[in-house]
Amino acid sequence: MARARRKDNPEGNMSLGEHLKEARNRFFASAIAIVVCSIAGGFFWKPFVGLLTAPVKEAAGDRGTINFGTQTQAFDQLLQGSLFLGFVASSPFWLYQAWAYLQPALTKKEQRMSLGFLFAAIPLFLGGVYLAWLIYPHAVRALYAFVPEGSTYYLAAAEFIQFVLRLHLAFGFAFLVPLLLVGANMLGFVTGKRVAKAWRIVVFVCVAFAAMAAPGPDLFPMFALAAPMLILFFVAVLVCMVNDRRRARRTIAHATTDEVRPVSAI
Fold this sequence. Notes:
The protein is mostly helical. The protein is about 75% helix and about 5% strand. The radius of gyration is 25 Å and the shape is flat. It is found in: Cell membrane; Membrane.
């Protein structure tokens, strides 16, 4: 990997020790950003938990409650929740640090491509999390519809909060899958036609995932999740096919240029 060029190092090469030092500095910078954002997230944790539990209280009414089983469980959830908020809030910074560490080893074209993927990944991930936030109340009401009349429902706070946070992360990472397909295509691992042939499997997986993430008799939450995922998938297929055609044209152009190139006299 190369770094900034100096007079005593015109090629900008680095030793293994310098690589490790650079990685350590990037890691510590990212860790500090996560810690700072986590501390800030701690001040918003109680209002955030209030927003998470509002659909539960609305659906369960007097028949359900959220129970913190031990004296320290509330503090444990505060630490975990603050770390989650800090991790998400600082994601643009630590993603940039990862890109900045790899950037000098890439060509100019690869740098532009990787920077475009970085700027696309952040809104896609946050968009998936936001969609989960919109669907989550519908899922809670649907699940509480299965509670028998006259029964009470005690929900363990630790399991509930972890389930909700994992659900939001799952939605966010699910929105990154089409971007990974495009990246694999640009690297030459898969072709657009090969990805398109799997559309039946993708439709089934997206609908099944949406049905599990948004269960219940109401079909709107399921389609609200499945539709964006399918749209992103078919957009990724289109981008892959366009990229394949460009790659094929470049290959033909290079082959034609090599054929018409005059042979120098010996």
